[in-house]
Amino acid sequence: MAAATNSTAGLTGLAARTPDSAARRHLIAAVVFLAAGAGFVVLASIKLGFPGVFDQTAFAGYARLRPIGFNLLVHGFGFLFITSVSYFLLPRLTGRRLPFEWVANLNLWAAVGVVAVGAGLIAIGWNSGNDLAEFGIILDILFFVVTLVPAAIVTIAVIDRRENTIYPSLAFLAAAQLIYPWLYLIGNLWRLEGAGTQLQNTFMVGGILTVALPAAAIAGVYYVVPKASNQPLYSRSLAMAGFWTLLFTGLASGQARFVAGPAADWVDTVGAVLSLGILVAALTVAANTWYTLSGAWDRVTPSAALRLTVTGVAAHVVVSALFAVQGFRAVAAIVGLTVWYDTLTIATLLGSIALLAAGFTYYAYPRMAGRAVYSDFVANRHLKLTVWGIGLATAIGVMTSVAMGMTWTSNVISGAADNFGEGFVSSMGNIRTLLKINILPLLAGALGTVVFAMNFYRTITSGRVTTSEVLTEIPDE
Predict the structure, then answer these.
(1) Which pLDDT belongs to residue 477?
(2) Please, is 395 exposed, middle or buried when counting C-beta atoms within 10 Å of its C-beta (0-12, 13-18, 19+)?
(3) Distance between CA atoms of 197 and 187, rounded to whole angstroms?
């Protein structure tokens, strides 16, 4: 695709046909959902640390705040971020305009409406009770159809591409966009009996958190890092090795969350072993990023996109390591059924993926809209708030999980207290101090997302006018 100077095209009409209009709009909506979801996650953490707060308000119970926050972050921010990455990269990697741009724009409004209505229904108590599958059957069907639209657009663009090379970024974005609808279908649109329900849910949740979202973020990394640093990607072979490792191990790793649960032992073992592939895939991204930037590290500091992307890659390795170890029986015996899973979910959504999304935003949006990033200083504040806030929240969450598990285990061995009824409440009293302390760093991390959203908004409205890319199709031979 050719790049040239062009004035910014306005976002006009619900079904705009302007090049990059769908990518811009999806990115804006994703950032709004990120900030909103972070707010509900903080409210849920306050409720967990202070159970008596919000008692007079039914919709502010923990069983409603938590699923609202996670659904806004996953099906709102996560899905729209995946779609924005796809719509931005497809024309640049396939050599043709995004097909059906007007359909992509219309579908955005449907996606926003379904997720917003779903969150509202959870708030009033209409909740199916399954993790990230809380919407009712009608909304489930509607959202499944919504997720099929970008999957179809990606498929058409890849099949009809003018550029014959399959770049690593194209492989990652296609995988993320194509598997999301089927993960949602498996987790929502029918129910098996007994342990089957739990296996359905872990497959969907694990697939979204460890495969779909990271794959889209990695697609952005493999495009942004070489472009922003003006360095060729170190190794395409290494990138594709990481791609296949993530795809074939991450999808089956979700069961590692429930080792010693209702599923068969061999299922637990397979999930634990395959979860190691998540870490291997993350290390390939880190290695490729490191060697691509060799000799060009001086370009990282002046670039907000590179700073956030590199930090996001490092955070992704840490989170992947924590996902990898949770399936080992010795670890699961301690941290299973504690706040470990929620800690890793928050570290993923508000930590690694949020940082990588911000890096992608600061690179992509100026090239789509012709507006430079409003403030590099504010971008740096967002980076520090996220690293310190979500980093400390993750560390405290891990310590809390270990303390919970050790307390319950010692109760069983010593007979000091029962792990139910009053005995459970008594044992949790010793842990609640850590839950209260964790509110502060989590609040700082959520504030980081708000700072990012404000900087993005000012970029849209007041960013310095700069050059944007004009996309020109490669003609057929």
Answers:
(1) 59
(2) middle
(3) 8
